[in-house]
Amino acid sequence: DQEGVLLAHLDLALIERARGDFAAMRVHAEAALPIAVEVFGEAHLYTAAARAVRSTALLGLGDLALAERDAEAAVAAIEATYGKDSVWLSEVIDARADIRRAQGRLADARADLERVLGLVDARNAPLQRAKLEFLLAQVLWDLDQDRGRARALAETALATFTRAGAAPDMKKVGAWLRAR
Model-level pTM? Predict the structure, then answer.
């Protein structure tokens, strides 16, 4: 089943991300992408997700130009297929915001994150929202803007991760808060 193979590669890519192995993450994302394109087409959510996952791997490997290209394509596909206010943007826009942050384009990253946070309900997708809140907290801090809100967002994310028992995320957010 091609869909199962695609989803397995995306899951494995996310596992590799958690391990910090961006080269292995890229291998799985690049295995998933042609399957997504062939089976579902360029504008499908799975294809956009595969591009977003590959963009994160490329960011981790330091290839910002290719990472940005994939992230832009993922966001454009979601907007074209599902609309500019689709909750599905939350599946891909965090990758673009992370890349923009790495490029020093903090205002653009903030705009992306503010936009998508308005689409993600904490009751329906608490972990996803917490990840977005923490990324926005980092961007706000880096911008040296609204640091009180940045801390509050990080603390909210930490509480969500704690309730979910998401130890790696708890550790990361906790360390960030302690450093500030």
Answer: 0.88
